[in-house]
Amino acid sequence: MQVIVIGAGIWGLACAYACARRGDKVTVYDAATVGAGASGGIVGALAPHVPDQWNPKKQFQFEALDTAHRFWRDVDAASGLQSGYGRIGRLQPILSQKALALAAARSQSALDVWQGKYHWQVEDRPETMASDTAPLGVVRDTLSARINPAKATASLALACQVLGVTILENHPVTALSDHGVSGPWGIAKADAVIVSAGVSGFDLIAPHTALNPGSGVKGQAALLDADMGDHPQIYADGVYIIPHSNGTVAVGSTSENTWTVDGTDHLLDTVVAKARAICPILANAPILHRWSGIRPKARRRDPMLGPVPNLRGIYTALGAFKIGFGLSHKIGEVVAAQIHNDPVEIPDSFTLDWHMAK
Ligand SMILES: Cc1cc2nc3c(=O)[nH]c(=O)nc-3n(C[C@H](O)[C@H](O)[C@H](O)COP(=O)(O)OP(=O)(O)OC[C@H]3O[C@@H](n4cnc5c(N)ncnc54)[C@H](O)[C@@H]3O)c2cc1C
Fold it and tell me: Which of 168, 258, 260, 318 could make an S-S bridge to 304, C-beta 3.0–4.6 Å?
């Protein structure tokens, strides 16, 4: 098949990679450059839902997280670059007796739903966390991983090119038509078009959908000069602390439905201050980089996948929201299967029809 992918973020590239592996001839159009959107970021937590009240959405995410190490190993081998992937686990403080009892119950359910491969276990607070942050210890899950978003996106882009994918930067798509796209550069046609332009993808499909398909949620994060090696990531007080493999630690993030300032502002200072209080070894770590991006949130929060109504040959891979990196390779495989008319099993809430139901 001839396939056009709109957007060289992590979801567009994951779709391009999956299609190219099937032998499709793929061209990616990006309005700017590879990783110019949310995927050019710095945080990179790949963390699971809690292992109870299991449902198809949690199962989908589990399957993605469970297989991510193989995907990124193959991508990095093909590109010769480093995605920074590592399954370092995650620590979350236990703050109350109720939370302690819940953690114990989840230890049991994790054995079942995580198939005995990964654990949700109660442990003493590590010395790296301030004594008042985790009065009753921590939960460690061994499924969570980290990745370097910008580097992973670059690695996947190169792996796509190794497979023969053409990536056209500075080629904005301004309109969709049956099996086609157009922009200031001209018109292109293909058997299938995958709209994966992040938050701007909602604007592209909006003329063809009954309801507003989605919006952006701004996030801010910072990169600190501190080497925590493969210390597990920490999620505490609403803040992610992600040790990366290159001697840096990312802290994030804000979650802003409205904003007046582009880039970063004082809200990020609060996130950094919390991270320094949770992890004293970060107390004096210099800030290397302050970053912000816009997360693509579909109107009902979940990913939005599938054919666009009233247009032939146009599909979406939108709504990556806060977990785009964790799901990316499985989203690519699902959308590639959809355009090939192969059977796919996805949660109902991931379909475009579900998002558009009133
Ligand atoms: C502060 C912050 C922290 C985050 N932390 C995490 C985390 O820890 N773990 C995680 O999994 N996720 C995290 N995310 C979310 C993650 O970054 C996103 O889910 C993901 O990057 C979205 O990928 P995407 O490919 O859908 O969109 P994007 O990365 O935004 O890519 C869209 C691409 O489309 C291009 N484009 C736009 N319009 C057009 C057009 N008209 N024509 C052609 N091309 C176009 C853009 O230039 C861009 O390259 C975080 C996000 C933020 C902001």
Answer: 318
